[in-house]
Amino acid sequence: AITLCRCMNIPARYATGYLGDIGVPKDPAPMDFSAWFEVFLEGPEGPRWYTFDARHNRPRIGRIVMARGRDATDCALTTSFGTAILARFDVHTDEVSEATASLARAA
């Protein structure tokens, strides 16, 4: 999808991170890293980056972006020589009410 957008002169980038279970039914399987792509388009609010996620194919909230780049190699979470063992990684996501979010933005 990224290559197709770029062939049509539409700016596109790869993004990777974590996608929590906010606003959707809780999945009993442990969540892993996620990847999606972003496209720079003219929209109702003006030009901006829009997120597209072929895996879930519906709008989601609670994305934690860890890296953005040209492709998966550009956004490697770990780059090492030899075996890399991830011993532990915990991410906690909580839904915040709009009132609380407004207070945080005002601070």
From TrEMBL:
Gene3D superfamilies on file: 3.10.620.30
Signal sequence range: none
A UniProt-annotated Pfam family: Transglut_core
Superkingdom of source: Bacteria
Residue ranges of domain Transglutaminase-like in the record: 2-54
PANTHER family: BLL5557 PROTEIN, BLR5614 PROTEIN-RELATED
Name used for this protein in its record: Transglutaminase-like superfamily protein
Natural source organism: Methylobacterium phyllostachyos
